[in-house]
Design a protein that fits this description.
- The complex is a heterotrimer of chains A (551), B (222) and C (304).
- Chain A is an alpha/beta fold.
- Chain A is 23% helix and 20% strand.
- In chain A, the strands form 6 sheets. In chain A, strands 3, 4, 9, 10, 11, 12 and 22 form a 7-stranded mixed β-sheet that branches. Chain A has a 6-stranded antiparallel β-sheet with strand order 8-15-16-17-14-20. In chain A, strands 5-19-18 form a 3-stranded mixed β-sheet, with helices on one face.
- Chain B is elongated, with a radius of gyration of 20 Å.
- Chain B has 2 domains: 3-27 and 182-219, no CATH class; 51-173, no CATH class.
- Chain B contains 9 helices and 1 strand; from the N terminus they run H-H-H-H-E-H-H-H-H-H.
- Chain C has one domain (2-302).
- Classes of the chains: A alpha/beta (551), B mainly alpha (222), C mainly alpha (304).
- Chains in contact: A-B, A-C, B-C.
- Chains A and B meet through strand 5, helix 9 and helix 10 of A and helix 2, strand 1, helix 7 and helix 8 of B.
Chain lengths: 551, 222, 304
């Protein structure tokens, strides 16, 4: 039989793959479908895996399902961009709106570990004011969580992932020292630094979830540069090699290649379990609590696809907000050529960062902020950028590609504002499981455009200041997906409360980037994991108070 | 076997560099060898496309990514055919596009129909400048024959045609050598990361007047 | 045991070594004692030079010898090592001009190298930052060749004392001077190990050893200089032996570190450079050997 984890599930028969040993296994507790578990979690990415680990460690019975395969990075990952698209969520989806999103790579994952298996590892804390964006900064919405509480959970996640970061972080309130030291800067990162120094703003080494020294059986980074196509050395501290092994040893079960199609509710209007597709059959896992952690497209899709007579508009949707307020982040870039050889393919792509425009509000004609980072596109990504964003083809493209080793670029992660008409809905077409596929509608608002214009002008100056030639702008790109099931203080203006608990169905929880009321100008993964840690603590507290369904 | 490489050099930025020379080095692991070996065996005969569609595709690919004569060409069309046959998709599409394979079939048939309407010959039989003109019209969204069946030629060009062909070309080791990329890198990654730094297992760039040095260094890259 | 350790490893024949040991035990006041002390220092200088030779070869290879000056420490450390071997084998009670010159050259190289390394670090974007101190040219490394040169030069001065007592260098008491230089060297080397182990986040508890034991050793040497009691000296001597062992055992730990990186030894072309530096820990051994020599000099001077 084939050992291709994409064809047959690996986590079965009381064992799961050992991600640290080729061909290895670790033991895994298993539950029968008819056994009612405390928590069934849909999705094992930054939200689901973290929560599964913490809940299992707190003694709850947990089954976490993922639609994707269970990889062992050391043996399953090739140094190859094409092959590694196997990490992406490439099921059929429709995009529309004025600025249709590009999906399938930098904003989705279909694997145990979710998109953390191929994320760029940038692990930033939010600016404290963003948690009260409406009150303190005048835009978006307030979070129902205080930043000081988040600060402690950020620390927990940074320790759990052994984040490699600068000795002193230049922005925001003090934070504990990062557990591991920053990586050496590559030339692309030094170019960013030179630009910042020329324009008189701060920069630093990017806090990254990749090891700068050994950790257990995980190797330190070898600077191979394939980070966003999957790390084959386990240096990347993805959920697959951090939270999930911990979850397994605490007694959680992980079910790979298990696509959840519908959440069942009982006569009382409570969640009763999930219908999932595995090995060509539909199964039903009974659970006392259901957690949806499918990220900002699959989460609302599942809630909407679970509509029934009692909840005709989908689950947890009395506010009508499920699927709405989808927020990508702006991901515009400025590119150019240096005389020197840069060879940005070496090392993690974003070794240096400036959060200046996240923390500085003077001189802005827009709400929100952005960070920008150095870049290291591999050939396919770079060629596609040159073709579709720069408009090159024919001999011009082939010749321009020969300058690859001299290319330098700066790219933002920029805040986009929540808008109700940016949303996930269901299309009429069906996917391979017979489920309605999502339609993702996205249009930039004027504030988004002003932020983008500001960033492009600034980064162009930064590249110009270090003698970069042939500067051009990549205008249309986004990254990350958040919103679509926002948290808040009131049932009519949010989908879940601060504990990620549905207002409508008290044993239905949502724990991923969907709950973000705003996105800030920072990569969301650290915040998603911090929220999951907080949710786990809240669940433990509530269960002690008898406020959680556990029988 | 590698004679064509001897002719390479003039004007090439990385003369003599062959990323495949590292096949047995610590830069390549088993999984990488497995997937690249499969790619190097791409069949000449189409499995997804019909013979006619495939010929149109070859003619299109030849204009999007023209290839220099002395070296063996990258089988761009065959690589795309293989990908579509394997059902590897992008995972999203504009509302106006059908799924990847269907978009390609319709687009190629439409380009062929446009060529026949203008030049009385199929796309594969018209001269290069006419092909380029037609592709530019496609890029600009000016092609509107009924054969497009409502699919905007501009959207097809940018999100399917250009993207898929470029990805096919730059998934091939010959293109990696051409641009001086280090190629696969695991377990061995890189040590020297700063400006103008180069590990001994990376391509050396030909500096004006020192092309022979680069050629000599690149022949020893392992 | 002490004498076995103190015997010249590199001296030609077994007979020669036996003679040296015998003569040392026979003649407390004789020239041979002086030569023995000098040879111990030659050996310490040589151990340091060997560490520098291999370390700078590896690190400057990593730096692709972009600047021709990067060959300098290889040449100088190689020469210093050769001179130290020569000195260790040499039983004559007179300073040697070629060795003297070579040692002075080593010391000068250390000073110049430090200047080069400071320049390298500060010219990088970010200047004197953690990033550049971690990953730029190591600021402390050239000090090792300076120390090697100093110790070697001291050995020649000691040797030139002949029967004169107490032995002096630079018109200072020899034992105390060498002990002070060694203690400072130990502290500096601890600083470098501490910096690099901090870079490695002290991920392995054993990484604390080379930042804990050597400063204690430096303190004991200082104690021996200041109060001069026999007990302090004996404790210091034991500690120097411990540090010598630590220096060589450290190579084993670093070899394990290399094997532990991605691809292990099969990926040696990367891991020798990116993993923990194999030749670095013996610099502690070199200094500890100098410490032993200084203690011996002090003992002879004070017990006289």
């Amino acid at each position: 039989m084939s050992d291709d984890p994409r064809h047959a599930p690996r986590a079965r028969h009381g064992r799961a793959p050992d991600v640290f040993r080729p061909g290895g296994w670790v033991s895994m507790k298993e539950y029968a479908d008819h056994e009612t578990v405390d928590f069934v979690i849909v999705g094992t990415g930054a939200g689901g895996a973290t929560l599964a680990c913490k809940l299992a460690e707190y003694g709850f019975s947990v089954v976490a399902l993922d639609a994707g395969p269970y990889f062992r990075p050391l043996e399953d990952f090739a140094s190859d961009e094409s092959e590694q698209t196997k990490l992406y969520w490439t099921d059929d989806r429709i995009v529309d709106g004025d600025n249709p999103l590009q999906l399938g790579s930098n904003n989705s994952g279909k694997a145990v570990g979710g998109s953390t298996v191929h994320f760029a590892m940038v692990s930033l804390r939010f600016r404290p004011e963003w948690f009260k964006a409406r009150t303190k900064l005048g835009y978006g919405a307030d979070w129902p969580i205080d930043w000081r509480e988040m600060w402690a959970y950020y620390t927990e996640v940074e320790q759990a992932l052994k984040i490699s970061g600068p000795v002193n972080y230049p922005w925001g309130p003090p934070r504990p020292r990062y557990p591991y030291r920053a990586h050496p800067l590559n030339a692309a990162a030094r170019a960013l630094a030179r630009g910042c120094e020329a324009l008189g703003i701060g920069w630093t080494e990017t806090p990254l979830a990749t090891l700068s020294a050994p950790r257990g059986l995980a190797h330190p980074c070898v600077y191979r540069g394939f980070c966003v196509t999957g790390c084959s050395t386990n240096a990347k501290q993805s959920a697959l090699v951090t939270w999930i092994p911990r979850a397994l040893s605490a007694g959680a079960e992980i079910r790979d290649l298990a696509m959840v199609g519908r959440i069942e509710t009982d006569a009382n209007g409570l969640a009763a379990g999930v219908h999932y597709h595995r090995q060509s059959k539909w199964h039903f896992q009974k659970a006392r609590n259901v957690v949806v952690a499918g990220y900002a497209i699959e989460t609302p899709r599942l809630l909407l696809n679970s509509a029934n007579d009692k909840f005709p508009d989908g689950l947890a949707n009395s506010s009508g907000l499920v699927g709405k307020n989808l927020m990508a982040q702006a991901n515009q870039a400025v590119w150019g050529e240096m005389d020197e050889e840069v060879r940005s393919y070496k090392g993690p792509p974003s070794l240096a960062i400036t959060e200046h425009w996240n923390y500085e509000d003077e001189g802005k004609d827009f709400f929100g902020g952005y960070a920008y980072m150095s870049q290291g596109p591999l050939p396919q990504l770079w060629a596609n950028t040159q073709a579709t964003a720069h408009g090159l083809w024919g001999a011009r493209l082939v010749e321009e590609m020969k300058r690859y080793n001299h290319v330098v670029g700066l790219k933002i992660v920029g805040e986009m504002l929540p808008q109700e008409h940016n949303r996930v809905t269901l299309a009429d077409e069906l996917d391979q499981y017979g489920l309605r596929i999502p339609r993702v509608t996205y249009s930039w608002c004027d504030n988004d455009k002003r932020l983008i214009d500001h960033s492009i002008a600034f980064m162009s100056r930064a590249l110009g200041a270090i003698g970069t030639k042939n500067i051009w702008v990549q205008e249309d790109d986004t990254c990350h997906l958040n919103g679509t099931a926002r948290m808040g203080d009131r049932p009519d203006s949010s989908v879940v409360n601060a504990d990620c608990r549905s207002w409508d169905i008290p044993n239905l929880w949502i724990c991923d980037g969907s709950v973000f009321p705003t996105v800030g100008g920072a990569n969301p993964s650290l915040t998603i994991q911090a929220i999951a840690c907080r949710t786990a603590d809240r669940i433990r507290t509530l269960s002690r108070l008898g406020e959680i369904r556990l029988n | 076997m590698l004679d064509w490489k001897a002719e390479r050099g003039a004007g090439e930025p990385y003369p003599g560099y062959d990323v495949l020379a590292k096949w047995r080095s610590p830069s390549w692991n088993d999984k990488t060898r497995e997937v690249v070996a499969a790619r190097l065996k791409a069949a000449d005969e189409p499995r997804f496309f019909t013979r006619e569609e495939f010929e149109t595709l070859i003619a299109v690919a030849d204009r999007i990514l023209p290839q220099p004569a002395p070296r063996p060409p990258i089988p761009v069309a065959a690589l795309l055919d293989q990908k579509l046959q394997d059902g590897v998709m992008d995972g999203y599409r504009a509302a106006s596009l059908p799924r990847d394979g269907e978009a390609w079939r319709r687009g190629l048939r439409a380009l062929d129909a446009e060529a026949r309407a203008r030049h009385d010959h199929g796309f594969a039989k018209i001269v290069e400048s006419d092909r380029d003109d037609l592709l530019r019209c496609c890029e600009a969204g000016e092609l509107k024959s009924p054969a497009w069946d409502g699919m905007p030629s501009q959207t097809f060009f940018k999100h399917r045609l250009l993207r898929d062909l470029v990805l096919a070309y730059y998934c091939h080791p010959i293109s990696w050598s051409e641009i001086g990329w280090g190629g696969p890198a695991s377990p061995r990654g890189y040590v020297r990361l700063d400006f103008n730094d180069r590990d001994p297992w990376e391509a050396a760039e030909a500096k004006p007047g020192h092309e022979a040095d680069a050629l000599r260094v690149n022949r020893n890259v392992r | 045991m002490e004498r076995a350790l103190g015997a010249p490893k590199v001296a030609g024949s077994k007979g020669e070594r036996a003679r040296a040991v015998q003569s040392a035990s026979r003649s407390r006041w004789g020239e041979t004692e002086t030569v023995m002390a000098a040879r111990r220092l030659n050996r310490a200088a040589g151990t340091l030079a060997a560490s520098v030779l291999v370390d700078s070869a590896v690190e400057h290879y990593r730096g692709s010898f972009k600047n021709k000056a990067m060959f300098t420490p290889l040449v100088v450390a190689g020469l210093t090592l050769a001179m130290s071997l020569h000195g260790t084998a040499d039983m004559r009670p007179v300073a040697h001009r070629a060795r003297d010159t070579s040692y002075l050259l080593a010391a000068a190289t250390g000073l110049l190298g430090t200047g080069f390394h400071i320049y390298n670090v500060t010219k990088k974007v970010g200047g004197l930052s953690w990033q550049n101190v971690f990953y730029g040219a190591p600021l402390g490394a050239p000090m090792a060749i300076l120390l090697s040169g100093l110790l070697g030069f001291c050995s020649e001065r000691v040797r030139a004392n002949g029967r004169q007592r107490p032995r002096r260098v630079f018109n200072l008491p020899a034992g105390e001077t060498v002990a002070t230089v060694t203690a400072l060297g130990l502290l500096g080397t601890t600083g470098e190990a501490g910096l690099l182990h901090f870079r490695g986040a002290f991920h392995n508890p054993f990484m604390a050893v080379p930042v804990t034991l050597p400063p204690i050793g430096a303190g004991l040497l200082a104690g021996a200089v200041l109060n001069g009691g026999g007990r302090t000296r004996r404790l210091a001597r034991r500690w120097m032996r411990l540090l010598t062992a630590m220096g060589f055992i450290g190579v084993g730990f670093h070899a394990y570190g290399v094997s532990r990186n991605m691809g292990g030894w099969r990926n040696w072309s990367q891991n020798i450079l990116d993993g923990p530096p194999l030749p670095a820990p013996p610099s502690f051994a070199g200094l500890a050997l100098a410490g032993l020599a200084s203690l011996e000099l002090m003992r002879e001077a004070r017990d006289a």
